[in-house]
Structure formats: C-alpha cells, structure tokens
Design goal:
699 residues; Rossmann fold; 4 domains
Length: 699
C-alpha cells in the first residue's frame, strides 16, 4: 500500500513521540495511525499495560475494532477501545472506596447504582411529574420524556463543561433576550435539576453528570489513580478529540507527561457534536502539549472542483468562487434528479431506483449512503420497503428516538399488556389489531380487525377466537391459524413473569417460527434485543429485595416506554454500526460521526431546514452552555442565524470530504410534513448552479 508524504510522516515518527496530527476528514490520518500501530508492535509488546484507543463514541472506533481482530491484538500487545465516558464509569466503580467518604451520598459505603440515560429519565420523571401537575413548565410544549432528557442534558453540560449545576438557570437567563415567561421556565428547570441531584445523593444513584464530577474533582487528583493509569495505559491514540467536551481534553492534558507515546488525530473540519458539548477550541489546545506536529489540508480524493464547491457552500462563499466555478465542476460531483418532483414519495421512488441501478452496475451496496437531516419512522419505513422490494441489503442508523416509535416494538408492548390480563375497558382493540399485523406474515389490518372482533376477553376463555364462516372465508387458513396460535400463547403465559422473560419466550417460541414476521427479518431480532437490554438496564437501577425477581417493575417500564422513553445506544447498535454490507441509511450528523467514507451519497430533502437548524430546545442552549460563550452576551435571532450558516458549511464540507465519487441530490417541492421547503442548503446549491451557468454563458 502506498502512502502520501503526510501519512508517511506519521508512520515514521519516533516510537515514543507525542504527535498531534491535524487534517481534514479523508486525509488519511486514521489509516496512517493504524499502519504506525502495526509497525510499532515489537516495541508495544514490552509495554506493561495496554494501548488505549480513545474515541468520543464507540461507533467511531469501528476501523480500529476491525484492525484488532485481524491482527490478533497487535501480536499480544493489548489494545482497548474506550470512550472517556466508559473509562470514567469503570474507574469510578473500581475506585469507589476512594470516593465514598468524600461525597455527599447519604449511604457512602453502600455500592452505588449507575444510571443509564433511560433510567435517569425515569427518575427525573418521578420528580418532575408533580411539578407538571402544579403547572410548572406550562408555557412550553414538549413530550414528557423530551422534557426530562433536556433537563438531564443541562445537568450533563454542567459536568462536562465544568461549572456548578446550580448555575444553569443563571447562564441561560443571562443570555435570554425574549419574553420573561421563559425565565420562569428556566427557574422551573433549575428546581427540577436540584431535586434530581438531591435524589441521587439520597439513593446512591450515579447519573452521568455525577460520575464525571466525582472523577474530575475527587478521583483523578488522587495519586493512586494516576499511578494506575500510568501503568495501565502507557500509550494512547486519541481520535477525533474535536467531538469531545473540554473535560476529556483536560484529562488528556494532565496525562501526557506520564505517557510513553501519544498520537492525537484532529479533524480540522469537525466539531459536529457541539450540541453534546464538543469543543474544537479546547481540542486544538492539545497541540501545545505535543513535541511533534504534522499537518495537511489535502484530502486523498479531493479535486479543485470539490474545493470550489466546499468553499461556495460556506457562508458568503458563493461570491468567492465567481469566475472559477464551472458547470462541469458541479456535474462531476453532483447528480441532479431526473425531474423536479412535487411530493416526497415520488422522490424516494427515484432515489431507490437510482440505488438499484448503481448496484446492478457493480457498485457495492456498502459504498452508498442515503443521508437525511432527520430520520423519522415514516421515512425509515418508506426507504426500507423500497429497497426491500429490490432485494438490496441496507443498514439503518438512528439514535435518540423513543423505543416505542418502532411499530414492531410498540406491537410487542401491546401484546405484553395482554399477558397481564388487564381490565377489559383498558384493552384497545384497534392497537391490538395493528399489533397482530406486525406479528403474522401477510396479515393486513382489515383481516386483523375481523379476528379481534371475535376475540373473547372473558376470564374463562381469555383470548380465544370464535371461528365462524365469515372468518374462514375471508382469511387464508394459514394466517388465521397463526393468529389463533399467538393469541392462545399469550392467554396461557403466566402474568407474573418478568417483561424480559416473556418477550424472550414470545420471540423464541412464536415470532421466529415459520409463518411469523421475525422468521427471516433480522431487524426484528435486533429490536427485541434492544428492548430486553433496555429493560435489564432499567431494572438494574431499581431497589429490590430479590435480585432475581424483576417483575415488580414490568408496569413501570411499560409506562416509561409509552410516555416516550428516549433510547440510549445499545450493544446491537454498535454491532449494526460495524455492519458495512448494505446501503447505509442515517441522519447526516450520525454519518459524520462514524469515520466512514463511501463512493456515493444521497442527500434527501435538501430543501429542509433540518440541515442547519438545531432542534427546538426550550430548556437548554448548547452554545450558551459552553466555555466559548462570553458572559453576559445575549442569544438572539442574529446569533441563531450565524450558528445555522456556520453549521451548514461545516456539514456540507464534512459530507463532501467523505464521498469519493458523486452525490445524488434528492429534492421534492413538498417535504415529509406536506409543507413547501426552500431551505438554506437548497438556496445555496441553486445559487452555485446560477453562478456556474453565468460563467458558461460568458465563455
């Protein structure tokens, strides 16, 4: 394999050098880092500890995971792939005796309970629900779990940025320039956050923010911990620091003098996770701690045309490419739709057909990424059906969505409720009819309703179906028998079993069998796995006398799901991210944080403002709650516009540098919600085409 001079400089650097590598995505930094790691294996063998490969998210370590498997842990040198969050949790758990008596926990010598994002939402909900009943947060409109997650996000920001959680409202209020009504909302948010922190101290609960605070303020300064880290991780590779918050950079800064080797790989066009606290300024400051700096601005598959397009899509950039940008430059890099479509389904039809044509012409499905600003359940379903009709394999990546938004997951929850033998008045036959269609192959809603009209809810013959002539004449025998089988199974299951046990049995004994929907659909086994993992993590945070009996929390878990519990990242998500065998369908931001490059991209809904406008967050503001926001400065419409224009340039630059060949632009006059879309990305692209045409006419 040939390497560029930039990559060769990384590979040939002295073994114990502390290197800061800076360059855009696609410049070959990670490839060179892997090659360097392989060539250093003889020296790494004698290291007393492991090589720590640190990334902001575990999905970013995909390429390293593949390398460690292929090369047998670098010839016996141990390699650990971690995020700072997972490392902090591990160390806090391991060194808890050093922390216990230096914290405010009421029972410091009792082992703490570590909360996931889901269980934290649950406990926050217990405290906020009475506040909602009193009229708190009355001027905003958010689903309960969106409200809880934004409160938790504020608490996390205070920990990772490094300011007391009691100052959250002060910072938000000082920057607010609108109606005074919002100030009352901020005050309510502070009350909820303070109550949650006290509840954690009272019950020995460790949410993410407390883990970070205890690690930074109590554990990390301890010489025992520093000695442990020095022996455990003498060599560190830190990839994508620009996507991490400042506290991670501070920890690395203090560890550097103790390291035997270091390599930091910084993307110059990164910082996509600012809404999660990422700080590019803080990340860049690590260059001052390194004795070797290696820098490039070149992308491996970049061209002059691409550089012009990237510059033209930046804020006020179109005027700077006049006289240089040609129509041929755009034609080399963008594929225009065959015609202008009015409605989204028409555009999706063309996109799916284009993908099919590419695959038939020899393009690997894994070299195509379909990207969108938001990936709703409806859009996932529409793309899945179209690609499935063409037998094209695909992988869907989406995060921070309620578990119950998946129709199959909701169906599982609805069917589980039948096992509990609820009051007849609480059983919704409409929902149960929909649930049955998710379980039995080929069963449509009308036939499912016919079956449910004949389902008995009496205790003596619970869930039995009264089969009559109309039923047998209108429903194929196999569908009918499978429907009766699953209802009989649900009626016979013991209602006192745990949620996880019941769902596992339902999947193994029924849904994975011939004639049922999960027989050949692997995505459904993934959803079941996510649901069970979510339940197990949920009950792990709950106090109980019998550690083996979790059934008492069945109702609490189901209620949390129905209220819109926002999902965390699961093991199955990570495994799925490693799967590069099919077309990737993902939100643009998710793709940008996966360290993945493809031959072809599809940009869906280029008229949407979701490409640059942040989600509505009435309880928080990631820009204000950062170290770079000047104290006392107001957040107004001009700041919002400036942030949007900066983000769209960053996103388009990041996507273009992660595409080797061409990008298909997907546009319809009316978007997913039926509203006409004329967003900033569409307008900038149109202006670039006008600039290029004017140059052609002048020539």
């Amino acid at each position: 394999m040939e390497f560029t001079p930039f990559q060769q400089a990384i590979i040939d650097a002295p073994g114990q050098a502390k290197i800061f590598v800076r360059g855009p995505a696609g410049s070959g930094k990670t490839t060179a880092a892997l090659e360097r790691l392989l060539r250093l294996r003889s020296k790494l063998k004698v290291f007393p500890g492991s090589v720590l490969i640190l990334t902001p998210q575990r999905t970013m370590a995909q390429v390293y995971a593949g390398m460690t498997h292929k090369n047998a842990q670098i010839d016996a040198a141990r390699v650990e792939l971690l995020t700072m969050s997972s490392l902090v949790r591990r160390l806090v758990k391991l060194f808890w005796p050093l922390i216990a008596d230096k914290s405010n926990f009421r029972s410091p010598y009792r082992p703490p309970t570590f909360l996931t994002s889901e269980s934290a939402q649950y406990f926050m909900g217990k405290l906020v629900s009475p506040m909602l009943d009193r009229g708190s947060f009355g001027s905003i409109r958010l689903t309960p779990n969106r409200l809880y997650s934004q409160l938790i996000d504020n608490l996390n920001k205070s920990a990772i940025i490094g300011f007391p959680h009691t100052e959250i409202t002060q910072r938000l209020s000082t920057a607010w320039s609108g109606s005074d009504t919002q100030l009352r909302v901020y005050a309510d948010a502070q009350e909820a956050i303070n109550s949650f922190r006290e509840y954690c101290f009272e019950n020995n609960l460790l949410d993410f923010s407390l883990q970070v605070e205890l690690f930074r303020n109590v554990l990390f300064p301890n010489p025992l911990l520093r000695g442990y880290l020095r022996r455990a991780y003498p060599y560190i590779i830190y990839d994508n620091p620009e996507e991490d918050p400042p506290y991670v950079h501070e920890i690395i800064h203090q560890l550097i003098p103790d390291l035997q080797g270091l390599m930091i790989l910084n993307d110059t066009n990164g910082g996509f996770q600012q809404f999660l606290g990422a700080d590019t300024v803080s990340a860049s400051s690590l260059v001052n701690d390194c004795d070797l700096k290696i820098h490039t601005e070149d992308v491996l598959f970049s061209t002059r045309a691409r550089k012009l397009i990237v510059r033209g899509l930046e804020r006020d950039g179109a005027s700077t490419v006049k006289g240089e940008l040609k129509s041929t430059h755009l034609e080399e890099n963008f594929i225009m739709p065959g015609e202008q479509y009015r409605f989204l389904p028409q555009m999706l039809d063309e996109v799916s057909e284009w993908v099919r044509n590419q695959v038939q012409s020899g393009v690997k499905p894994s070299e195509i990424a379909i990207l969108t600003p938001y990936l709703s359940s409806a859009l996932k379903l529409a793309l899945s059906q179209r690609l499935g009709n063409y037998s094209i394999p695909f992988t869907i990546l989406a995060s921070s969505t309620p578990l119950i938004d998946e129709p199959f997951t909701k169906a599982l929850i609805d069917l589980f409720s039948l096992v509990q033998k609820p009051m007849v008045s609480t059983i919704n036959r409409y929902d149960q009819s929909l649930a049955l269609t998710q379980m039995v192959k080929g069963l449509d809603f009308i036939r499912s309703c016919l079956i449910w009209e004949r389902v008995s809810l009496d205790s003596m013959d619970y869930l039995s179906v009264k089969v009559d002539e109309e039923l047998t004449s209108r429903i194929p025998d196999q569908m009918l028998q499978k429907s009766i089988f699953i209802l009989d199974w649900l009626g016979s299951v013991e209602g006192s079993a745990s949620f996880a046990n019941t769902i596992t049995r339902l999947f193994d004994e029924v849904l994975s069998q011939p004639g049922f929907s999960a027989e050949t659909d692997q995505s459904r086994s993934r959803l079941v796995s996510q649901l069970i993992e979510s339940y197990n993590k949920f009950v792990a945070a709950m106090p109980r006398a019998n550690q083996d009996d979790t059934s008492n929390y069945n109702e609490d878990f189901v209620d949390a799901l129905r209220s819109g519990l926002i999902s965390a990242q699961y093991i199955e998500d990570y495994i799925q991210a490693l799967d590069d065998s099919g077309v990737l369908i993902a939100p643009a931001m998710t793709f940008l944080t996966r360290n993945r490059v493809v031959d072809y991209q599809v940009w869906l809904n280029i008229g949407s403002d979701g490409w640059y406008r942040r989600l509505e967050q009435p309880l928080t503001n990631p820009f204000v709650l950062s170290r770079n926001w000047p104290k006392g400065k107001k957040w107004d419409a001009d700041e919002e516009l400036k942030a949007s224009e900066s983000l769209i340039g960053k996103v388009t630059s990041g996507l273009i540098t992660r595409c080797r060949k061409q990008i298909l632009l997907g546009f319809s006059q009316y978007g997913e919600t039926g509203v006409e879309e004329q967003g900033l990305l569409l307008r900038r692209l149109q202006y670039l085409y006008r600039v290029a045409r004017s140059e052609a006419q002048r020539d």
